[in-house]
């Protein structure tokens, strides 16, 4: 299966942030890089879970809700651990994307558009890239 562009961008963001942690000397920059690494990894995992749930929704529609609940929990934890304003905003935007998908599912959509989630994940990649 060919990697999706979003996954590649997220992987690049993680790699970039990890590389930055070894070369940045300022504490603020180092903190942001570490926040970005943690966030980008969690977001990549979350988006993957949601994509898998949506692709197999016809077998078990409850998987989408379970994936959304997992993402919401991760986002809450991430929000609590970062003090970077740009990263916090990107996490908030991802939360809004999750809410949009959740609303679609509650309205009966078994194959919701997850573009708001992938777009927000891409924005996190941008925030994490110098």
UniProtKB/TrEMBL annotation:
Keyword Signal recorded: yes
Keyword Signal among UniProt keywords: yes
Source organism superkingdom: Bacteria
Keyword set, alphabetical order: Signal
Secretion signal, residue range per the UniProt entry: 1-25
Name of protein: Secreted protein
Taxonomic lineage of the native organism: Bacteria, Bacillati, Actinomycetota, Actinomycetes, Kitasatosporales
């Amino acid at each position: 299966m060919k990697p999706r562009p979003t996954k590649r961008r997220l992987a690049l963001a993680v790699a970039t942030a990890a590389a930055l942690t070894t070369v940045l000397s300022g504490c603020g920059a180092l903190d942001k890089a570490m926040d970005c690494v943690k966030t980008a990894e969690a977001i990549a995992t979350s988006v993957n879970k949601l994509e898998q749930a949506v692709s197999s929704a016809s077998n078990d529609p409850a998987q989408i809700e379970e994936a959304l609940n997992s993402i919401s929990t991760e986002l809450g934890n991430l929000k609590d651990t970062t003090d970077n304003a740009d990263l916090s905003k990107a996490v908030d935007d991802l939360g809004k994307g999750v809410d949009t998908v959740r609303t679609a599912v509650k309205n009966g959509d078994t194959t919701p558009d997850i573009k708001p989630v992938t777009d927000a994940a891409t924005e996190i990649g941008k925030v994490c890239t110098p």
